[in-house]
Amino acid sequence: MLKIYFYCCEAGPPERTAYQHGLVCLAEGLQELGQPFYANIDCWPLTPGREAYLFRHDPHIEPEDCDVVVLDHSWTVYGRTLPPAVLQPRRRFAVVYVDHADGVYTPAWQPPICDFDWILRPHSNERFAYPARFVPWAFGLSSRILQALPGLPQFETRKRSVLSNYRSTHPLRQLANSLFLPRLRSLLTIDATVEALAPPEASADHRLQWEQTGRRHDPRYYARLLGSTACACFGGLLQPPLIGNTPLLHWWDSWRFWEALAAGSVAFHADFEKYGAALPVMPQNWQHYIGIDFDNLQPAIERLMDEPEILETISNQGRQWAIAHYAPLPVARRLLALLES
């Protein structure tokens, strides 16, 4: 059995937390599989009293004792120096770098990171040329998200609304707000309510998750997702193509997309197939999400008018697909299969 070592960053305060979602998802899946793993620090407390942690430091285990070392983009985003062990030219372990960083070109494109054994990259595009060791990946679902969204309400109890309540602006969000959402208003009301960044008045468990996710976890937001028919999950940008006429979708993945799927709130995004978005297992348009063609918007509106029942079908199928392929367990299995290859 492989021995796996995680290099975690110190979390920091809620307003500037190193939220290592990709590492958390992998570790939770490995734990389900009974796969042992180690870490440089105790990280990701499981209880408000911090009696237990997902990542535990064992002073008797060093990276050199393991087969694989895993770290993520937090080291570069928060200005940390990469651990010296991963920079050794003759290291005996493989290095996996989980690159959730925003933008098209990230520090993973440059040495020393591009020389690691695998770079797991959400936001990937199948028609874009990446360095040789990049592997399409996804934000996916953590146990925290699944516990916050344990089941679906009866579809008919949801409001006929679509959430469009971003905290940050992206070029694709601006495009959708100006071109697509005005057309959708005839079918669904637009809910632009944004929850305050103040800690939720809820349990100590929710407060802990709010702190260690950098103020992203909010039971009020999850209740809004569960009560809404759909959610606008647009993100990233459409880059003009070097060849052909179809733009390339970059920087498109998000927690919002996976949270909407898990909540059965039908996810609207750009058409992944048309714009080249790449995932290890792809969703099907109009089965698991609704992908929008920005060159031809009206057919989507007309189909929703002609087939209103399709929203409930996508709500159920989207959640099932996301959990089957992107819950912690299948994600950890995917990593182990990659390592064994």
Can you tell me about this structure?
By secondary structure, this protein is an alpha/beta fold. The chain has two domains: 154 residues, 3-Layer(aba) Sandwich (Rossmann fold), CATH 3.40.50; 180 residues, Glycogen Phosphorylase B (Rossmann fold, 3-Layer(aba) Sandwich). It is built from twelve helices and 15 strands. Helix 1 packs across helix 12 and helix 8 packs across helix 11. The longest helix is centred in the C-terminal third of the chain and has 17 residues. The two termini are 14 Å apart. The mean pLDDT is 95.
The portion of residues assigned to helices is 25-40%
Q: And the CATH topology of the largest domain?
A: Rossmann fold
Mean pLDDT, rounded to whole units? 95
Count the domains: 2
Structural class: alpha/beta
CATH architecture verdict of the largest domain: 3-Layer(aba) Sandwich
What is the tally of helical segments? 12
Strand content: 15-25%
Write down the CATH class of the largest domain: Alpha Beta
Annotation, overall tally of beta strands: 15
Which ranges are low-confidence, i.e. pLDDT below 50, for 5 or more consecutive residues? none
> Strand arrangement, largest sheet?
2-1-5-6-7-8
Distance between the termini: 14 Å
